[in-house]
Design goal:
single chain, 266 residues, alpha+beta, Phosphatase 2c, domain 1, five-stranded antiparallel β-sheet, 7 helices, 12 strands
């Protein structure tokens, strides 16, 4: 059975420097459709460069170098992006401890079986099916020593971003091991990929309670809720609905164009 992907994206639309940290979009590749968010962090210039470098290197490799397995190609692309960002930061004294997180979902629209999750960092993927929400990914972080002590004393919260230290991201270390694994997808699945700017501020339960059949309205509701809870840290949401299609999924996706909507570094 061929499948049709329907997309919705929601993100902040103000003039703050944080808006420039994000590169995201849906890419039509020889392996299917890749939905990807690169979320930069660190100083303003470094965050912009890290997210845009990662997005462009991965886009170039996965859209123009067929012949290898999708999993190996994505692994190589992410590692190359990591080396480029790390080298850039190492040679520029004005950029300190900058990098980016990555969350991506690759879906073959001709074969509704396995999809690939690609992740470095704490951005998340959720699956909704039959009114149930499941968090597919876990965070790449550890708790600070002070936070661990507060938790041991029965104080504090594991969900609060100040309690956590990122231990895996693109560009911070010379070598990384991205998380790439297969998940089973089926008709009527809905997937949500989102950054820490969302999940640091609203719970999984709240995300489920905000559910709307209309994907764009659902994405907007999630982002608005995160904003109401004080999010200013690059919140972005992508929603992917999987539906049966009488036409070839790849034919339906020919009109998808590379979208790097958040790379406004000029």
């Amino acid at each position: 059975m061929n499948i049709e992907l329907r997309f919705a994206t929601s993100f902040t639309i103000n003039d703050s420097i944080d808006d420039k940290y994000l590169s995201h979009g849906q890419l039509n590749t020889p392996y299917g459709t890749l939905c990807m968010i690169c979320n930069g962090f660190g100083d303003s210039r470094g965050g912009v460069l890290a997210s845009s470098i990662a997005f462009e290197i991965i886009r170039r490799i996965v859209t123009s170098i067929p012949g290898r397995s999708a999993e190996k190609l994505l692994n190589s692309a992410i590692r190359e992006a990591n080396k480029a960002i790390y080298k850039n930061a190492s040679s520029n004294m004005n950029i300190h401890k900058t990098g980016c997180e990555l969350i991506a979902l690759l879906i073959d629209t001709d074969e509704m079986q396995n999809a690939l999750i690609c992740r470095v960092g704490s951005s998340r993927l959720y699956r909704i099916w039959d009114d149930n929400i499941t968090q597919i990914t876990k965070g790449h972080y550890r708790f600070t020593e002070k936070a661990e002590q507060r938790l041991a004393d029965g104080e504090g919260s594991r969900s609060h971003s100040e309690n956590r230290v990122q231990v895996c991201s693109i560009g911070i270390r010379e070598e990384i091991e991205p998380e790439i694994r297969k998940i089973f997808v089926q008709e009527n699945d809905r997937y949500i990929i989102c950054t820490r700017g969302v999940t640091d501020h609203i719970s999984d339960t709240e995300i489920a309670q905000l559910y709307e059949a209309n994907a764009q309205k659902y994405a907007d509701n999630i982002l608005q809720c995160a904003g109401n809870h004080g999010s200013r840290n690059n919140p972005v949401v992508q929603i992917i609905d999987i539906n049966s299609s009488s036409e070839s999924g790849r034919e339906k996706n020919k009109e998808l164009t590379t979208s790097n909507q958040r790379n406004r570094s000029e």
